[in-house]
Each structure stands twice: as structure tokens, then as C-alpha cells.
Write a structure and sequence with these properties.
- The complex is a heterotrimer.
- Chain A has 19 helices and 20 strands.
- By secondary structure, chain A is α/β, with parallel strands linked by helices.
- Chain A is globular and about 70 Å long.
- Chain A starts with a helix and ends with a helix.
- Chain B is 33% helix and 22% strand.
- Chain B is globular.
- Chain C has four helices and six strands, in the order E-H-H-E-H-E-E-E-H-E.
- Classes of the chains: A alpha/beta, B alpha/beta, C alpha/beta.
- Chains in contact: A-B, A-C.
- The interface between A and B is large, with 66 and 63 residues.
- Strand 8 of chain A pairs parallel with strand 16 of chain B, so a sheet runs across the interface.
- Bound molecules: iron/sulfur cluster (SF4) and zinc ion (ZN).
- Iron/sulfur cluster (SF4) binds next to helix 2 of chain A.
- Zinc ion (ZN) binds next to strand 7 of chain B.
Chain lengths: 443, 553, 114
């Protein structure tokens, strides 16, 4: 058979598929699927293309226990034993899996009395705390597309981290009240680094590192008519005149928005930086409509916040150790429970703390038994007591993902995987954990 | 096959005109059945209800329990949960948090623990319908559904302006189907679009909404007619313009008049019954008498109250400008969340204080409504949970309605000016158990068009609440002796015995799909998700669903 | 020699695309071990493109390959490193009650490797 004939026989097109690589969660993918490979991802950006085209089913045992291949059942048994016997287990990760899987993971955490935390705590967790402090004036991305005439990016580099944010949502699209698209909008970028995003901005402010709060607070003051010392320029790198100009634009636009990145949430000051941004946007509503939104990273980190919040009442950093949910960032968040050497077992879903946590956290993780669910190998899966090789969400499994603006989107998988979904593995663990806990009660 | 007998209880079943009659109730496979004629039939379980009060499970027709707004409020308010005792994990049940916005599992358990078995969320933006269904999947025991926001939807406004009623009808039918929603909700018609467009609000029924050239009056009448034409089980559910503002009773009356005899439900009417100049606190007073007179004279109208209770709660509404107003009044943190093409949302913590004249008057106005609407079949109990207070306050409201001495005692504690500005002190009506059964289950079920809910007749769902009589009605209704869901005993003396999941209720609408290409064209121009990814399919209703028939017209 | 730089780890396009090839693959490892530096600073510190440097924070140290940033991208004193294993090794475990370690804007020292 010629290669063309093979193509014909096996080529399928999947329309309206969703890329879950970044928080943009673009659901307009048109995938060309040949057998168990995606050969084309129409509409995807470079990151999306890498996400789809690099996806292949790896040769791997469905489960490994201490590095040795095992059956799914053996893996589940060992995982359930670890969790049911732990005194201070943690459940962590969750941002790169479906809500369906996240729901089961939180259930397991509840049953075994774990701390449940998501990668939110190390991306926009502080933004969540700021939201708890002052609230948030926010909207779905379509509001930006249809109405925004002033778009400010602060502490982020969307050109490289969220490549389609501008074209799909925030700068380029023509919208109901912005019929001229990009021409109808003013784009501002504020960052410490003149990143690739700067080229797209009409106004670029390169502020001094760790001065975001000062600049935001000064803008708030100016909005409120408070005088600012021109020495602010030495402090922040931005002149009073520049600030006055931006304040004027902010007050007189019809719809303004600040999209803030991890430049605010990861730099010291963290939630205070974000509170300043949220407060600035809120205050501007005395003059016009003004919004502020975090630009969320992983595909379904927003879903993780939602699921943890609806099941426990708190968005991340939740301890179920006392038999009911308690929230305390810094205490129950995973960076801390590991770095302080408290956790004694872990269930890690679709994330890599062994590869991206602080040194003391990594060292403690090495010492405790833990289970990792991940389609790919990582430092974390390598060190796991039990590793389940799972199907990739969105490419191999259906389910639900929340875009960075809380809009829930269904997934349309391209092809089946020989590996089980996260949800399937977690359900099996949950079932076995419940059996073990019940046995313990009756003994 | 399971057969349950509730033996010898004192039954209050207003739908079937049963007022305190001692009789047995039989439930087979989840439904109420006639007592078996053969004498040798042995039930699988018998509950001895001798001396106990037996009612159908409660029906809450207007609460906020799921979806984006509720979940934002959960995320925003950790402090609210710290004050409230949590729901603890048991071998059979999940843990949760309470406060004014309980987590999903807690919501299911707490409603069921109070004898409520059916609850509707009153305001879901269509784009977030999938989210609401996902939360429902984690909300145990109760049956539930939601109302879909239409009053500021751009396609709706466009069809009204273009005078295209058929297209409007097809769109509404399609949307309800796509979202798997139960009813048409209108929130501050036109006002939210004005707010989102940079204005402040609309203030009367005849102000034009910029860009769209429609008025609130047109939106109300068109959507009311559309809901009727679709034969929806529940008529249009209206949150009027100007919620919470002094002098808004004029708008409320004008809205009632604008309906011109069409069937409609006006929700949390308490918040819409204020006298005084628009925006003027000083002349704030009750206009319940005037509005209740109108309702009494117009059988096309039903209301729920939106009772305010003293304490800490969270205001959450699809009414964006109202959120801003409350933020300005209270100075507290504020969330606003707008949904493209569809809706708005505002969330603000609020503390209703007994010693505040305004708050105490709001409290009194709610009670006036219960006492001034003559026909209990046309008024449903609600706190607009959590807006006026938590649903957990229903037993307290029952006590206020059944016990005028208790009511007068509370009235003694509020600022004296409240007595001058309301007629509450002169109302000595007391509700009977039969009337309580009406406003907490039979009437809301009837208003919702749920033939299998709110009563204990043959064929009804086996959802039953059994209470221990007590002079203290708060205690009586806060802690049922038993609660059954679909014939299964799920609560005994406040403890959840079994965790099961109720079904999702939605309206089985039909629509002319000839309009789909036009909707799709509009959709693809303005939305940011794919048209095909918008509708919610059945698999989100993991615990089963019931499509409630529309009447064919 | 001991002047303090501020290090900003962050995403890059290549960090994102190579992540999809695998975190343990050569391309991702190379990208996340490439330190971007202001050309003036490089001259001042006598580092040329492609040379190895050691970056040391209060909490850890890593060895990286130095690369000149585009003109104007980084002001003097600011370093950029694509997120990955090395950037994380410089973080401390303390989160100041936020759950978030100081992950951007870290004080570091730079030393040319001979
Ligand atoms: S912007 Fe993000 S979601 Fe969209 S295609 Fe690129 S990587 Fe995927
Ligand atoms: Zn409501």
C-alpha cells in the first residue's frame, strides 16, 4: 500500500478540539490525526503545535512501583495503602488534568484527611489571596474582545507565554464595540524586562525590579487626586508625567483592563502587589468600566481553583486533616508542607514538584512515599514510589477544562490512549482507599 | 423493588387538600403509591410516624447554590466560613464549609437536613451552564435545576428591537435546551447592559438601552410572552429594575402592570417594595400594602419574598450595578464578573443589623409580604439565599410567621421608626402548619410547574419530611425526625444516613432549528468559544436528569 | 566581583515548546540552563557569549551558560533565566505565609567559571 493510501485510510479531522497547554484554552483547534499521531494542528500557536505534534504514546508500563513495571491493580493497591496509612498526606498538582479527575482527587484528600493544594499556590495563589482581600472586577475574555479600548499587561510576557491571547481575546479581534480591532485599542505593557511582548505595545514602561507595588499605588493615588512626589521616578523608573498620562487614559477609556502576570504574584510583596492592581482597577469604576484579571498559566489551573473551592469552600492550600476543610496559605500549601518536612506521603497529579520546588521541599519529597500520575517522565515520576502513566487530557481523554476566565470548555480527544485517564486511576484509588478505611473502622 | 410505609403520621398535603389527617403514606420504588389493598403486604421498611407531622419534601424555588457567582463568593470569603461550624467528614459523607455560601456537599446535606429536597439556582449565565451542572454533580441528595439569564442577552435585545418574536422564541428555546436549564430569568432588564457599556443603570421601564434601542418594558413583556409561548413549566422569573433603592416600588408596580395579565413570577419582592425618593434614604418606607393589594387582585402573579434576617451574609446577584452600589454603601470588598454577550454579576459581603433602621425595615417588609398576600398559593418562602440570609434561616422565618408573640418580641428590639414606616406591628395573622406546607413546598412546586413535587399524592416523588411537633417552630423545622428522598431514608434526627444524589431538572423545550444558522453567525462573530462547544450534553448530569415537559401551545 | 544581580526566571517560547518534548530531554535542559544578561554587564564582568557562569543565591547555586540579551531587553543588574530545574534550585523554601516562595526578583551573585 502506498503511503498516500495509508493516509487516506487513517486520516481523521477533529474540529473544535481544545489546546490545554496554556490558560488561553483555545477551543478552535482543527487536528489532523493519522492513526495515533497528530500531524497538523490548525490554528494552534507554536506552543500549541508543540503540545499536539510532540504527543506520542510512549513505551511505558501503565504503572511502576519503585521503578519496576507493575499492573494497574498492583499500582492502585500500593497507592491506596500509602495514602490510607499516612498521617499527613498531601494531594498536589491538578492543574493539568480534567475537572472530572480533580473532583476525585479532592474526594481522596477528604477521605484520607490530606492537605489538598494545586499549582495555583505557586503561580497565582497570591492573586487568590488578594482577591480575598479586596475582591476583583473581572469579566470573561469575550468582554475584552467586544469592548476593551485600553489593555494593560503588567508583569507578564504574553507573546511567549500565551501566544494567542492577543489575537483571540485582547488586542487584535474586532468586537461589537471595537469594530476596528487593534486600531481601536491602546496597548500598554509594564515589565521589568523589555520582553518580546514590548514590540506589540503602544506604550511600554520598563519599571525597576520589585517596584510594581509602588507604581500601582502611585497610580491609585493619582486616580484619587492625591499628589505624588516627582521623586517617584528615581524610585520606580517611571516619571510622574508618564503616570499622569496613563491615569488620564485609564479614566477616559470606555473599557479598560489590567492583565497581570506572575511578575506581580511571584515577586516579593506578592499578594500586596496584586491587591494594588485589583484596587486600582476597582477604583477606576468611579469613572468608567475597568477590570483586572490574572493571566493564568496551565491549561486547567482555573478548573482546579473552582473544583477545590466548590468542594471545600477554599481555592487552594486546604487541609482536611481535622475532618473538615481549613484554609491557610503558608501552612497547608505544598511548598511549605514539604519544605518544613511535615508531609509523610503524597499524591501528585500532573505536576513536577521534584523539578520545580525549592531545594528543601525537593529534599523532603525524596524521603517520603508518594504516588505520581503523569503521562510523561519527570523528576517527580522518577522518584515516585508508584508512578501511573496516564492518558493526556484533551488529546486522549474527554472532560472539562476552565479557561483563565472561568469559562468551562469541553474536550474533544483526538485518539485513544492505551493508558488510563487520571480520572480512572484516581477513582480506583478512591475506591480502594475507602475500603481500607472501612476495614480499619470495623477492626 | 422497595416498599416503604410511613405509618400513622399527621399529614399536611395542601395540594391534595389534606390538612392534618392521620394516615399512612406508601412509597414504592421512589414514588408515592396508593396503600396496598391486600392485607398481607409487608413493607421493606416502616417508619412509625405516630404523633409526627408529615409533609412533602421542601422546595426552594429561588436560591444561589451553584455556578460561577456562588463559587466566586466561596473563593472571596474565607473569613465567612471560619465563623461557622463546619460539616465534618463521616465514613459515608464528605466534609464541607458553611457560612453564608456553603460548599457543594454541605449545601446538599444542609438542605436535606432541614427537610428540603428540591432547590433551584436562580441565576446562571448560559456560558457558565456547564459549570453549574458540574457543581450539581457534587451537590448530594437534593434534586436541582437552574434558571437562565436572558434579560440583558444581546441576541434577545436585538430580536426585541427588530420585532422578531418568532426568532426570539426559537432562540430562548434553543438556549434553554443548550444549557439544560429550567426557566427564563430576567435580572434588571437592560440595566446590566447599560452598566457594562459604561453607564450606571436604567432607572425606569421606559428608558432606552443605549446601542440596542430597547426599553426594560419591552424586554419584560417580550420575554414573558416568549416563556408563555414556549409553554415552559415555570413562567418568566423577574428580578425587577432598581433593586434595593428607595422609591423602587413604583418600578415594581409598573412592572406588574406592564405584564397585562400574563403569568409571571416576581422574585425577592421584599427588595423591590421600598417607598421614598429614588436614592433618598430619609423617606425610606414600606410600600408592601400597595404592592400586595395589587398582587392579591391579579391572579397572574406569584412572588417569593427574599426575607432579610439579621446577621452576616453575602449579597450575590446577576445585577452588576447593584453590586457596585452595595460596595459603595458598605465600603466592603466587591467582585464584579461580567459574561460576554449575556450577563453581569456582583458580589459584596453584607451584615444586616437589627439596630439599623434600613435593615430592620427590610426585615419587616419581608414579613409584611408573607402576612399581606391573602392566598398562600401565590407566595413562596425564600431568603434569596444568601442575599437576605442563608436558607438555614427558613425555620426561623416559620417561627416568625406561626408565632406572632415571637414576632412582636423581635419587633421590640428594632429601631422604633420601623414601626412607623411599616404596618407589621398591626398584623396579627399567624400561619397554620397547612399554610406553611403551602409556602414551603406545595406552592413553589406548583409555581414551578413540577407536578411530581411538593405533595404526597399518588405518583409524586417519594420526597418526604417528617417533623416532631413542637411549640417552638424553629426547633421543629430545623431538625426533622426523618427525611426521605425518593423513598430512601436519608436523614434521621439531623444526621445524614445515606448519601445519594438527586437528579437535575430541566425544561424539555422544543425550538425551530431554522433559526440556528442566524444564531451561529451571531455567535461566531462575538463569542470567544466555538459554537459547537457551547451546548451542555447529558453526560454532565451524572446523577440522572428529568426533562420536565412543556405544555404544547 | 560580589555585586548583587536581580534574577528574573520566566517563560520563553523555547522553554514552552521544548517542555512538550520532555523535561528530561536535551533541548529543554539546554534552554533552562541559559542565562540572559545585559551586554554591558557581560563586558564589565568579562563574560562572553556561551561562557559558563555560576549563579549563587542564599539558597543554592547552579551553573549556566551565559548569553547576551537583546539590546535594551535587560537593564544592567537584571538577569533572566527560563523557568526550569536550575531556576528553582535558587529559591528558598520560605513563603512568608503565602505558599509562594520568592520565585522572581531574587538576589543572586554571579561568578565566571574558568
Ligand atoms: S495560546 Fe495557549 S491554548 Fe492557545 S494554542 Fe497556544 S498554547 Fe494552546
Ligand atoms: Zn436571587
Amino acid at each position: 500500500m502506498s503511503e498516500a493510501a495509508v493516509m487516506d485510510a487513517e486520516t481523521r479531522i477533529v474540529k473544535d478540539a481544545t489546546c490545554t497547554f496554556c490558560g488561553c484554552v483555545c477551543d478552535d483547534m482543527e487536528l489532523t490525526v493519522v492513526g495515533k499521531r497528530i500531524t497538523k494542528a490548525k490554528n494552534a500557536c507554536v506552543l500549541g503545535k508543540a503540545w499536539f505534534l510532540n504527543h506520542h504514546i510512549e513505551e511505558h508500563a501503565v504503572a511502576t512501583i519503585e521503578g519496576k513495571p507493575a499492573t494497574l491493580e498492583e499500582g492502585v493497591e500500593r497507592a491506596a495503602q500509602i495514602l490510607a496509612n499516612a498521617r499527613y498526606p498531601i494531594v498536589y498538582g491538578l492543574s493539568d488534568t480534567t475537572c472530572e479527575a480533580q473532583r476525585v482527587a479532592v474526594s481522596i484528600a477528604d477521605r484520607v484527611g490530606a492537605c489538598v493544594d494545586t499549582t495555583t499556590s505557586v503561580c497565582h495563589g497570591p492573586s487568590g489571596m488578594a482577591f480575598q482581600g479586596v475582591g476583583e472586577v473581572t469579566c470573561t475574555l469575550g468582554e475584552v474582545k467586544n469592548r476593551a479600548d485600553l489593555v494593560i499587561f503588567w508583569g507578564g510576557n504574553p507573546a511567549e507565554s500565551h501566544p494567542r491571547h492577543w489575537t483571540r481575546y485582547s488586542l487584535m479581534p474586532k468586537g461589537l464595540f471595537v469594530p476596528n480591532g487593534r486600531k481601536g485599542r491602546t496597548a500598554v505593557l509594564v515589565d521589568v524586562r523589555k520582553s518580546k511582548s514590548a514590540a506589540a505595545a503602544d506604550i511600554f514602561w520598563q519599571i525597576k525590579p520589585r517596584k510594581d507595588f509602588e507604581v500601582l499605588w502611585a497610580l491609585r493615588a493619582l486616580v484619587k487626586g492625591v499628589e505624588i512626589d516627582p521623586a517617584i521616578e528615581q524610585e520606580t523608573g517611571i516619571s510622574l508625567a508618564q503616570m499622569q498620562d496613563l491615569v488620564q487614559r485609564m479614566k477616559s477609556c470606555k473599557f479598560g483592563i489590567i492583565f497581570f502576570g506572575m511578575g506581580l504574584s511571584m515577586t516579593r510583596g506578592k499578594h500586596m502587589n496584586v491587591e494594588a492592581a485589583l484596587s486600582l482597577a476597582r477604583d477606576l469604576n468611579d469613572y468608567t468600566r475597568f477590570y483586572a484579571k490574572p493571566v493564568r498559566g496551565h491549561g486547567n489551573v482555573t478548573g482546579a481553583d473552582n473544583v477545590v473551592a466548590w468542594q471545600t469552600g477554599y481555592p487552594f492550600g486546604v487541609s482536611l486533616g481535622r475532618g473538615y476543610p481549613r484554609f491557610n496559605p503558608g501552612e497547608f500549601t505544598t511548598s511549605d508542607t514539604l519544605a518544613r518536612g511535615e508531609a509523610d506521603a503524597g499524591l501528585i497529579i500532573a505536576s513536577d514538584p521534584a523539578g520545580n520546588f525549592s531545594q528543601p521541599a525537593r529534599e523532603h519529597l525524596k524521603k517520603i512515599p508518594y504516588i505520581a500520575l503523569d503521562p510523561h517522565e519527570s523528576e517527580t515520576t522518577r522518584g515516585a514510589t508508584v508512578h501511573f502513566c496516564t492518558a493526556t487530557y484533551g488529546i486522549n481523554t474527554p472532560g472539562t477544562v476552565y479557561r483563565m476566565d472561568d469559562v468551562p470548555i469541553p474536550l474533544r480527544p483526538a485518539f485513544d490512549s492505551p493508558f488510563p485517564s487520571d480520572e480512572t486511576v484516581l477513582r480506583a484509588i478512591e475506591k480502594r482507599v475507602r475500603e481500607l478505611l472501612r476495614e480499619r473502622l470495623t477492626n | 423493588m422497595s416498599l416503604v410505609k410511613i405509618a400513622n403520621g399527621t399529614v399536611y398535603d395542601p395540594t391534595n387538600n389534606i390538612d392534618g389527617v392521620v394516615q399512612d403514606i406508601w412509597i414504592q420504588d421512589g414514588k408515592i403509591v396508593a396503600p396496598p389493598t391486600a392485607t398481607d403486604v409487608r413493607p421493606d421498611r416502616t417508619l412509625d410516624a405516630t404523633g409526627l407531622v408529615v409533609m412533602a419534601g421542601g422546595v426552594d424555588m429561588h436560591a444561589h447554590i451553584a455556578g460561577p457567582k456562588v463559587n466566586l463568593a466561596r473563593k472571596m470569603r474565607p473569613e465567612d466560613k471560619r465563623l461557622a461550624p463546619p460539616v465534618r467528614r463521616t465514613p459515608n459523607t464528605r466534609s464541607g464549609t458553611v457560612g453564608s455560601v456553603p460548599s457543594t456537599f454541605a449545601t446538599g446535606y444542609l438542605y436535606a437536613g432541614m427537610g428540603y429536597t428540591t432547590v433551584f439556582d436562580a441565576a446562571i449565565p448560559p456560558l457558565a451552564a456547564r459549570h453549574a451542572h458540574e457543581e450539581f454533580g457534587d451537590t448530594p441528595i437534593i434534586d436541582k435545576g437552574f434558571f437562565l439569564l436572558f434579560g440583558n442577552n444581546h441576541y434577545v435585545l436585538n430580536q426585541i428591537a427588530a420585532n422578531e418574536p418568532e426568532r426570539l422564541k426559537a432562540f430562548v428555546g434553543w438556549m434553554l435546551h443548550a444549557a439544560k436549564a429550567y426557566a427564563v430569568k430576567v435580572v434588571n432588564p437592560g440595566g446590566i447592559e447599560v452598566w457594562k457599556g459604561g453607564g450606571d443603570n436604567v432607572h425606569s421601564l421606559d428608558e432606552s438601552v443605549e446601542h440596542f434601542n430597547v426599553t426594560p418594558r419591552q424586554i419584560i413583556t417580550s420575554l414573558t410572552q416568549t416563556a408563555m409561548d414556549l409553554g415552559l413549566p415555570h413562567p418568566v422569573h423577574i428580578h425587577c429594575n432598581n433593586l434595593g433603592l428607595p422609591g423602587n416600588w413604583n418600578t415594581t408596580l409598573a412592572t406588574m402592570q406592564a405584564l397585562e395579565g400574563r403569568r409571571a413570577h416576581l422574585t425577592h419582592i421584599q427588595f423591590h417594595s421600598y417607598g421614598g425618593g429614588l436614592g433618598e434614604q430619609s423617606q425610606f418606607c414600606s410600600k408592601t400594602t400597595e404592592l400586595a393589594d395589587y398582587v392579591n387582585a391579579h391572579p397572574n402573579l406569584t412572588v417569593d419574598v427574599g426575607q432579610v434576617l439579621f446577621g452576616e451574609t453575602t449579597s450575590m446577584t446577576g445585577d452588576g450595578p447593584l453590586g457596585y452600589y452595595l460596595h459603595k454603601v458598605t465600603g466592603r470588598k466587591w467582585t464584579n464578573a461580567d459574561t460576554e454577550m449575556e450577563a453581569g454579576c456582583g458580589i459584596v459581603p453584607i451584615t444586616y443589623r437589627e439596630k439599623s433602621f434600613v435593615h430592620a425595615l427590610q426585615w419587616a417588609i419581608g414579613l409584611e409580604w408573607y402576612l399581606l398576600v391573602n392566598d398562600p398559593w401565590r407566595i413562596a418562602m425564600s431568603t434569596d439565599h444568601p442575599n437576605g440570609g442563608s436558607f438555614l434561616a427558613y425555620p426561623e422565618i416559620i417561627q416568625l410567621l406561626m408565632d406572632r408573640t415571637y414576632r412582636q418580641e423581635v419587633l421590640k428590639r428594632v429601631p422604633p421608626r420601623v414601626l412607623e414606616c411599616s404596618v407589621l406591628k398591626d398584623l396579627d395573622r399567624e400561619y397554620s402548619l397547612y399554610e406553611i406546607a403551602i409556602i414551603t413546598r406545595a406552592a413553589p412546586a406548583r409555581m414551578l410547574g413540577l407536578k411530581h413535587k411538593g405533595h404526597l399524592g399518588i405518583g409524586a416523588d417519594g420526597d418526604v419530611a417528617i417533623y416532631t411537633p413542637n411549640a417552638n417552630k424553629l426547633d421543629m423545622f430545623a431538625l426533622p425526625r426523618y427525611v426521605l428522598k425518593g423513598g430512601v431514608v436519608i436523614v434521621e434526627q439531623g444526621e445524614i444516613r445515606e448519601e445519594l444524589f438527586g437528579r437535575t431538572l430541566y425544561a424539555a423545550t422544543s425550538y425551530d432549528d431554522g433559526v440556528l444558522p442566524d444564531i451561529q453567525k451571531w455567535f461566531e462573530e462575538y463569542y470567544t468559544i466555538q459554537f459547537n462547544n457551547y451546548p451542555v450534553d447529558e453526560h454532565y448530569m451524572t446523577n440522572g436528569s428529568t426533562a420536565v415537559a412543556c405544555s404544547n401551545r | 566581583m560580589d555585586d548583587i544581580f536581580i534574577l528574573i526566571p520566566g517563560r520563553t517560547s523555547r522553554q514552552g515548546t521544548t517542555l512538550n518534548e520532555g523535561k528530561l530531554k536535551a533541548d529543554f535542559i539546554e534552554e533552562t540552563q541559559t542565562l540572559f544578561m545585559c551586554p554591558d554587564d557581560m563586558t564589565r564582568r568579562g563574560v562572553v557569549d556561551g561562557e559558563r557562569v555560576r549563579i549563587r543565591s542564599e539558597f543554592g547555586q547552579v551553573e549556566l551558560t551565559c548569553k547576551a540579551a537583546k539590546t535594551g531587553e535587560l537593564p544592567p543588574g537584571l538577569l533572566f533565566l527560563p523557568y526550569g530545574d536550575p531556576s528553582s534550585r535558587l529559591m528558598g523554601g520560605e513563603t512568608h505565609c503565602t505558599g509562594m516562595p520568592d520565585s522572581k526578583g531574587m538576589d543572586v551573585q554571579l561568578e565566571k567559571l574558568l
